[in-house]
Amino acid sequence: MRVLEKAPAKINLSLDVLHKRPDGYHEVQMIMTTIDLADHLELTELEKDEIRIMSHNRFVPDDHRNLAYQAAKILKERCGIKKGVSISITKTIPVAAGLAGGSSDAAAALRGLNRLWNLGLSMNELAEIGAEIGSDVSFCVYGGTAIATGRGEKIQLISPPPHCWVILAKPTIGVSTAEIYRHLDLKNVKHPNVDAMVKALENKSYEDICDNLGNVLEDVTLSRYPEVAMLKEQMKRFGADAVLMSGSGPTVFGFVQYESKVSRIYNGLRGFCDQVFAVRMLGDCQDLD
Ligand code: ATP
Distance, CA 252 to ligand 1 centroid (Å)? Predict the structure, then answer.
């Protein structure tokens, strides 16, 4: 038996941090949406009772540190599964980029194993299990467009953005999420207007979505990594309608409404950045199929 699952990347249209909680996590309010940049997982049943991870990307661990491994382990224990599974991950989403690649692989493993092992778990149950692996996994179980609160694990699905092009560029630096949060001074930040973004999505207003993009972590990353600030400037200069950093970075994304502009921006960025992608917005949960 073999099951295939698509694991799309997410971008943050809005990312706000409200305060630090007594348990050490930050209370957040984020609007996330999926884009058509995806890893692909192939899950194959094994007679031997073991979890095997295969990936050809040298930055992706192939043992218990892999989030897809952790997803399989939790499901096996929770549901008393005595069989093994081999999970082959074809990586397209850049690693440690602010695009939730690992979380999406974990979510795809949960969805895929639910089918492979006929577990009959609901999406809500899978999302709850996902929250034990990481804060972004719950959102990735559903995909689509959602507002995430708590430490990111409380998900409410909302209207998807209208279709447009998304150009992504990742500079060749690694940014640690923990480091960015450590340097975030909440008394001294510009909070994005999350409610205005929800309204813009409800109204399907591309202009209002562009006007209300915001990420409270952006200034921290930009001030520490000038190459990210430079990439943002270049993307604007080449003609993107609106530009923002995703998650804690370093990936920068830009929206483009008309296809005629896409190749100019893509080619311009390729001149000085190795990892550049031009993809469509997904935004709808059904797009996972
Ligand atoms: P987020 O946006 O949720 O903060 P990210 O996009 O910044 O995530 P990931 O690509 O998920 O970061 O990778 C972060 C780290 O997780 C990597 O350095 C890697 O060692 C580890 N990791 C574990 N499992 C995976 C996986 N399946 N794919 C990629 N990285 C993984």
Answer: 17
